[in-house]
Amino acid sequence: MSTIASFGFWSFVGIVAGIYTLFALGVQVQFGYAGLLNFGQVAFMGIGAYTMAILVVKEDLNMWLAAGCGIVLAILAGLLLGLPTLRLRADYFAITTIAFSEILRYVATNEDRLTGGSQGTINLAGIGQASQYDGAWQSFLGKVERNLHVGSDAAMLILVWTVALLAVAAVTLLMRTPWGRVLKSIREDEDAAASLGKNVFLYKLQALALGAALGALAGVFYAWQFSFFSPDDFAPLITFFAWMIVILGGLGRAWTVPVGALVFGVIFAGTRFFDFPPFSLLDSTERAYVRLIVIGLVIIGLMLFRPQGIFGSRKEMVLE
Amino acid sequence: MFMQLLANGLVTGSVIALAAAGVSIVYGILRLVNFAYGDYMTFGAFTAVYFNVTLELPIVTATLLAMLATALLSVAFELVLWRPLRARNAGFMSLFLVSVGLALVLRHVIYLVAGPQSRTYTVDPYKVYVIGSARLSGAQGIAIVVAAVGIVLVGILIARTGVGRMMRALADDLPLAAVAGVRTSRVILAAWVVSGLLAGLAGVLAGLVQTSFDPQLGFTLLLPIFAAVILGGIGNVYGALLGGLTLGLVMELSTWPELHGGVNPTYKPVVAFGTLILVLLLRPQGLFGRARVV
Amino acid sequence: MSSAILEVRDVVRTFGGLRAVDEASFHVDEGSITALIGPNGAGKSTLFNVISGFLSAERGTVQFEGRRIDRAPAHRIAQRGLVRTFQVPRALTRMSVLDNVLLAATRHPGERLNGLVLHPGRVRSRERKANERAAELLALFRLDTHAREYAGVLSGGQRKLLDFARVLMAEPRLVLLDEPMAGVNPALGRQLVEHVLRLRTETGMTFLFVEHDLDIVMEASDRVIVMNEGRVIASGTPAEVRGDQRVVDAYLGTARTT
């Protein structure tokens, strides 16, 4: 039987989609609501994951506290990035954000003593001392399994999606408040917003920081799900996955993010299990190439044929 | 040591400069930040591998053929992708994301076809040029000479030729130039041809300089290239050339031990981004860009 | 004798080598309707952008209600009660007409994250008041039937009205109108003039407007300021300005060259 039909496969798709819902929700806040071209979102995911893992392994900090520190640090990093760059032209800002995420990735690769270097978190405690940061998480997950009488995949699925859907609901509510109204007005026309007394810079900064927090939250779950990660897990490509998800669903609507993330999850994880012809002719690395080609084609096709996404209306795109 | 770093900086810088000019020419006219440009370069580098290694042609012939092939690729994407997108009034974000998609497709098709293994051109590895206290490999020597010629040719093209003049007119004001009777679609095609030729050339040179390379070649250079484009003032071709040279020198010289021990060489790209961010903070219009009238 | 609500002194602003505004000085009396006129390229729009904080002045000062605003950012100037419109109305197209107006509510605790969390009661009551006021304004400008629609579906004329409603929602004491009559049909133009006259009488609001339609200028304004080549060349009552030889020359001069 094909793996496509197994629960293991679909729960993996679901967990990936849940994590990416949180991650892409950050981009939705930044671009979909506030119009910010942040192409460095993956940096915040990395900050969340690394901070949590480092504090747990090196400082023996409580897992929840460490995760909280990761999110706070990502918010601070967002403010630090935004302060000098948010006044730049949109295209300069976009490129600067990619540069920001790449700088952090280079630092994570080269500062072995802090991050374990290119070998990843396995070296966190130093070479030759295998380390793991998710012991407390695994035992928490075990408790959830026993209480709900489910397997570990299902428990993870439930936890990730509970958090993801709460975040989607929170963002949806937030965007209906007067605060969200100001954010949308900045996306539409920042001069008009400023002419009505709104401090555009301050709102952009807040949107960037909120998106950063969501990215870090996704990073923490990413770390827990995969039990190991390295700097290469935070390549610029990951940011573009989030953009694809947001545009798949449609801009300016938080509830469409989970749908986009599910479609992405199927493409991303699904192509990994293509074990039928013609894909069975390819070896696993070649199938990884095909997966990225498919994702590239989806992005191009989306922008060419349905830039408003699955749920957006063409009418809305042409309003001027 | 200092002279060696200076020489290395000129080599790296001239490769980045050529590529940055290629990005800038298209940006100036179409406001398109081409994220796939690094992979255009990789395409050029691998086409040259085919001509140079498989067909055993001399490296110069292989380079010219690779440039031609990359220019064709560049024009093909204009026709099937960018022109239709412009017809739909796609904005900055849409164009950028399409170029991201294109980068993914191109790079992984190259991976599928050529495989992930490292490649090397067939050039004499023992030939070494000694200039003062600096030593350059044969490949580096070729690279620096060819790049210098390329840079001069690009400068002449933009400043002296009719096509160059029209490109500048379009970069200033595309709708106005169209009204004034400039055949915009032809000039845009010409810009893609030049951009593609430069991508092919820069790709092969990057391959020569690094001696061995894989399909990540162009992508790893992309961000320093973007940094050079911004340093020069986006859309300003001369600025991009200067920005590239500046950045190459800054990257290499930052590792000079006399300079507080120098920066760890693996941090060279970080130095490039750091320079970029610093310059943007001090001069948001770029090092060589003019402030724009609002 | 009324006092000056706005005082512009020796303002200079250049683009490249061109002096768009060249030592311009004038004042606007509180409660007046003042027109700023001049041939194309006289520097009126640049001066508007300087006053409202969208461009910085290289030299000179701008005072609003006795306080300097020439170094203040645009949003701060608007918060102080000096609100502008744009030549082409800036409708926020993918937001509802109602939200466009609500956005302009001033001192709204719900526009701050800490306000939302700490004072939900205050947020609700402010939002209720804002909604009442917005409904009034939309009714006044006959936009109430479109309240829930995207502002992007409104016609050009309706967008002018929306812009005006939004400005009033911001409770300004001085309104800068950039060519309010441009692209508006005569009936609607008439309506706008009457709104301005009525608001001045009822609330004492001050208006400064740039306008090319000289008939409207002569009819609606108390004072006229004339600019040419970046400088203020004349000011006075409509009748005084009409008879001023420098003004006639300035307009004829451009008529000859264009």
General description of the model:
- The complex is a heterotrimer of chains A (320), B (294) and C (258).
- Chain A is an all-alpha fold.
- Chain A has 14 helices and no strands.
- Chain A is globular.
- Chain B is an all-alpha fold and 294 residues long.
- Chain B is 72% helix and 3% strand.
- Chain C has helices at 44-51, 74-79, 97-102, 113-118, 120-140, 156-169, 186-203, 214-220, 238-243, 245-257, and strands at residues 4-15, 18-29, 33-37, 59-64, 67-68, 82-84, 174-178, 206-210, 223-228, 231-236.
Helix-strand category of chain B:
mainly alpha
Query: Spatial order of the strands in the main sheet of chain B?
Result: 1-2
Low-pLDDT runs of chain B: none
Element order, helices and strands of chain A?
HHHHHHHHHHHHHH
State the helicity of chain A in percent bands.
Answer: over 70%
Estimate percent helicity of chain B: over 70%
**Annotation field: number of helices of chain A:** 14
SSE layout:
The complex is a heterotrimer of chains A (320), B (294) and C (258).
Chain A: H1 7-33, H2 41-59, H3 63-85, H4 90-110, H5 112-115, H6 135-148, H7 152-176, H8 178-188, H9 190-195, H10 200-226, H11 236-249, H12 257-270, H13 284-305, H14 314-318
Helix pairs in contact in A: 1-7, 1-10, 1-11, 1-12, 2-3, 2-4, 2-10, 3-10, 6-7, 11-12, 11-13
Chain B: H1 2-30, H2 37-54, H3 59-87, H4 92-114, E1 128-131, E2 134-137, H5 138-160, H6 162-172, H7 174-179, H8 184-210, H9 217-231, H10 237-253, H11 268-282
Chain C: E1 4-15, E2 18-29, E3 33-37, H1 44-51, E4 59-64, E5 67-68, H2 74-79, E6 82-84, H3 97-102, H4 113-118, H5 120-140, H6 156-169, E7 174-178, H7 186-203, E8 206-210, H8 214-220, E9 223-228, E10 231-236, H9 238-243, H10 245-257
Parallel strand pairs in C: 3-8, 3-9, 6-7, 7-8
Antiparallel strand pairs in C: 1-2, 1-4, 4-5, 9-10
Helix pairs in contact in C: 5-6
Give the key terms.
heterotrimer, A: 320 residues, mainly alpha, 0% strand, C: 258 residues, alpha/beta, six-stranded mixed β-sheet, four-stranded antiparallel β-sheet
